[in-house]
Amino acid sequence: MAKSCKGLAMELVKCLSESDCVKVENRPYRECAKEKSPKISSECVGLRETYFNCKRGQVDMRARIRGNKGY
Q1: Of 2, 19, 26, 55, which sees the most CB atoms within 10 A?
Q2: Which Pfam families does the entry mention (predicted)?
Q3: What gap in Å lies between CA 65 and CA 17, rounded to an integer?
């Protein structure tokens, strides 16, 4: 994993570990990350989207040359 997205990944795992999906239902992180908003908090959904955009930016050659967009 690239260093630029590692911090986001760790924050996402921390957020998911505090959600009811992992705590109460004892489901794996990967399964909970795919859930829609009612199961996980809006903060986790935002982190998931940001992490996805970070990973996509590493694969997209145009973004690699130009750099990540400022959001």
Answers
A1: 19
A2: Pet191_N (PF10203)
A3: 35
